[in-house]
Specification:
Elements (H helix, E strand, L loop, with lengths): L15 H23 L15 H8 L4 H16 L5 H28 L12 E5 L1 H15 L4 H14 L27 E5 L2 E5 L3 H9 L2
Parallel strand pairs: 1-3
Antiparallel strand pairs: 2-3
Amino acid sequence: MNNGAIDRDARSYRLTNIDMLRGLVIVIMALDHVRDFFMTGGVQDPMSQTDVSPGLYFTRWVTHFCAPVFVYLAGTSVGLMAERKSSNELAAFVFKRGVWLVFVEVAIISTAVTFSPFGEAAMGGMTITILQVIWVLGIGMMVLAGAQYLGEKFCLFSGLFIILAHNLLDTVWPSGSISSGMDPLWFGLHTQSSSIVPPFLIITIYPLIPWLGIISYC
C-alpha cells in the first residue's frame, strides 16, 4: 500500500495485491500436487486418516482454499475490467478467454495427465478428458460475458443465491462420488460424474453450478 492507495504494478490496471494472492495460491497448489504425486498408491487423502501427522494433515487441509480463491479472483478481475472496458469489449474479451481455457483443459491438460491424446488402450481405446478447475474458470468466464449485461447487482445476488442454495439440488440431482450412466441433464453440473461420448470418456471433477456462484459473486 502507498499513501492509502491500492498497490499497483507498472501496468496501472494490475493490482499487485491480487497477483500476490494468486501467487500464494499457486505455491500452495504446487505443494499439494507434490504431496499427491509422492503419495500415489499410499495415503490419497490425509484428512481421512486417523493416524496422519499434523503437518501432512495441514498441508492437505489448507489446499481447500485454493480453488475457491482462484475462481473468486477470476470473477473479481472481470468486475475490475468493467471499469476500463465497454460492455461489448468486456464480453468479447472474457468470452474468448473462457473458450481458450476450456480448450486448454480439454486438449492440453488432459493430454498431459494421460499422455494418450488418441486413446487409452486400458480404457478400450477411448480418449480420457478430465474437467477440473480450468474448465470451471473457462465456462464461468463465458457465462459472465453475458451476465455482466444484467448488471453488478444481478451477478452479486445470483452468485450469492447459488452459493447458499445449490445443495438443495441434492434431492433432485445426485451428489457424491464419480459414477457413470447418469442422466445427461446432470452431467457436469451438480456432481462429480463420468460419461462416455465416443470416442471420449469425460470425467468431471469440478461440477459447474457451485463454481458459477463463486465466480459471479464478485
